[in-house]
Each structure stands twice: as structure tokens, then as C-alpha cells.
Amino acid sequence: MVHADTSVTTSCSQQVTLAARAHQTTFDQQAAAATVTSDSQFAQYQQYNPVFSSVYDNWTFDANCNVTLVSVTFVYQLSNSSLLQVHENAQANEVTSMSIQPNLGAATFNHNDGNKLWSGYETTYNSGATTAEYQADATWSVPAVSDPYSGGCENTPDCELAVWVGLINSPLASASSVAQAGSLSQLSCGVGTACTQGYGAAWNYSLWYEFYPQMSTIYQCDPSGAGDSITTYVTNEASYLGSGYIDYWALSVTDSTNNKACTVNGYYDSGIGVPYYTDFILERPEYGIPYGYTLPKFGSVTMTAGMWAGSPYNSQTNGYYNLYVMENGASCPPTCIINIGSSAISSSNAFTSTWKSSSGT
After folding, report:
1. Are 144 and 159 in contact (CB under 8 A)?
2. CA–CA distance, 296 with 309 (Å, rounded to integer)
3. Contact at 8 Å (CB) between 143 and 226?
4. How many CB atoms lie within 10 A of CB 331?
5. How far apart are CA 187 and CA 294, in angstroms?
6. pLDDT score for 288
7. Which of 173, 178, 169 is nearest to 212 (CA)?
8. Nearest C-alpha neighbor of 109 from the set 170, 169, 184, 50
9. Half-sphere exposure at residue 348, Cβ-oriented, CA atoms within 13 angstroms
10. Fewer CB in a 10 Å sphere around the end CB: N or C, the chain?
11. How does DSSP classify residue 313?
């Protein structure tokens, strides 16, 4: 079982969140964007019709949670279905590098396929979900993944598991837009080779965010690793800026193992709506979108969760929740194989999700 040390993580993540909010008030995004588009390197991507997607900040912090802004990254969606990430210095007046992120099938999820994809909890503040939940946050350790069975991660680009928190307006199974962020654990194996280090196997652990149905973005600020303790916040900015900001969103992912963090502030998305539901989810990609991904094997993930207006434990006690148990199989339903099961939520707002099987995925 993998547990996260929440004490230092939570304290520093709160300081990162405050620093990001302060930076938002002084950041001249228009001027910073002009620096990007006028850079000579940017011209080579014009043939792909770059469209602005989002901007995120990269931070470091010390043992006392003193936070320092390192760089600013602009993200553009290209017509070839990839993302261009343009990295600027902390002053956002000089481009330092550019990188291409391929289209991720792992986080371009179909949110209408229920328990085939998800395990975890979705909670509301009250019966009928009539009270807004302006923040979802949780701490966990990035799960290490392995081949679930011989050949399980062959013949596909990789096996993937995403762990995330999010805010939505309606139940996840019917949601058309989601604000979400978390960790991604990936394993790819060479076809016809043993899925071990040095024999065609490659592991990748990263942090990501997404405003579904937009493409997911892999943060470049932190090369995350298995076992890293992270805390993720997804916040509706109406919670601290007033009701006029109900369509603005803030995200932060803090890695206390590497003392690094990534934040998004002031992201406008009117499609999500008033957030009445908070989600704490483990997820795998769906069949054929764009590939037939397999659920990798892992141990357990314990998410220690929090909410703005209430708590997951109280929501569970009062019955204001949906429990997702990932299950698949050739005859599912009625005969289903449980892939990931989740425990009850404890009084400390923690629950554990455990790998059972990858059959049927």
C-alpha cells in the first residue's frame, strides 16, 4: 500500500496556491504572449495554425515552504493534434525553449462509459447537489505500475493509469466538461520482448491537467517519479474572487518529493458551469480512443481528500456520493471482473483504491 505524507505537502501546496494567486494579479498575459509569438522559433510552427490553449506557472519551494517562480509556459494546440509548449523565464519576457507534446490518448477520456473506466468517489455537499463545491483537493503518492500479465502492455502504445481530482456540474457519467488535474503512470513494452528494464520497457511518470474535452497537458515543470507525494487542488475562482468569476478556474499540483509545483490560474471555461460535484478518481483510457489501452498492474493508492464546503466522509455518511468500481469483461454485464476496488472513506477523508485485475481491459 502506498501512502503520502500529507503534512509538509499540504502546507507547501497552500503556499504555492497563494503565490500563484498573487502572481495572477500582476501577470501581463498579453505582453507575455506577444513575446512568444514574436520569437523566431515560434514561426516554424505557424504552418500548424497554433491556437492558444492555456498558460501555467512553474515553481520551486524549500523546506520552509518559501516559494519561487521559475518559469511561465504557454500552451498552444496545433492542427496536427499535438501541443506546443513555449517556456519563458520567470519575468515572461524571454523565450527559453519550446517542446512538442504528442496527443495523449490517456487523458482524452470518454466520460460516458461509467465503471469501465473509473474507480473512486464522486461527492456532493447535500442531497440533490444544490450547493456549489468550489474546491476539490487530495494528496496521494504516484503509483508505480508494471505489466499486469505477459504481453499485457504489448501491441498498444502503453498501459496507463491516471489519478485525479476534479470539479464538475453534473454526475461524471453524464458530464460534458470537467476541470481536472493529477498524476499519470505509464508503461510501454516492446512487442515480443520481456516487459522489464533494458528489454524494451519504458516507464514514464508525469503530472497533468485538463479542461475536458480539451486535450490534456503534461506539466513540464516536474519530472515526477513513482512514489512522489503530490497534492492537487482544483478550484473555482468564484470561491475567492466572487460570483462573477464562476467560469474561471485554478489548478495546482505540488510534488513535495521534488519540491516543485505547477499552477494554472484564471483559466476561462464557461462550459463547465457551477461545480456541484467533486471527484476523486483512478482512471484508464477507453478502448480505441485512440488506442486499446490496458490497465497496468499497481498496488494501492490512498487518496486523502478535502472539499471546500464539506468533506467526503460526511458526504458518504449522509449518502451524498457515487462510488465507482472499475469493472470489465467480455460478458460485463452481467458477469463483470473488478479491476480496481475502493474502500470506504475514513473519518480523516481518506480511502484506498486497490488493483484487482486487468482482465477485460
Report:
1. no
2. 35
3. yes
4. 9
5. 10
6. 47
7. 178
8. 184
9. 8
10. N
11. H
What is the pLDDT, as a whole number, of residue 3? 35
User: Contact at 8 Å (CB) between 74 and 52?
Assistant: yes
- Integer CA distances (angstroms), 41 to 36, 49, 52, 69, 202, in order: 9, 14, 16, 24, 30
**Per-block mean pLDDT, blocks of 10 residues, the chain (361 long):** 42 91 94 96 95 95 95 94 93 94 54 72 92 94 91 75 94 87 87 66 88 80 84 94 95 94 95 94 68 83 83 88 89 89 94 95 80
Q: Give the chain's domains with CATH numbers.
A: 24-100 (3.10.450), 105-355 (2.60.120.700)
Calculate the alpha carbon distances from 144 to 119, 200, 209, 297, 315 in Å. Answer: 17, 18, 20, 8, 30
SS3 label, residue 39? coil
Q: Which residues pair with 12 in a beta bridge?
A: none
3-class secondary structure per residue, 203-220: EEEEEEEEEECCCCEECC
Please name which of 252, 253, 244, 249 lies closest in space to residue 275, comparing C-alpha atoms. Answer: 249
In the chain, what is the greatest distance between 2 CA atoms, to the nearest angstrom?
59
CA–CA separation, 62 and 326 (whole Å):
38
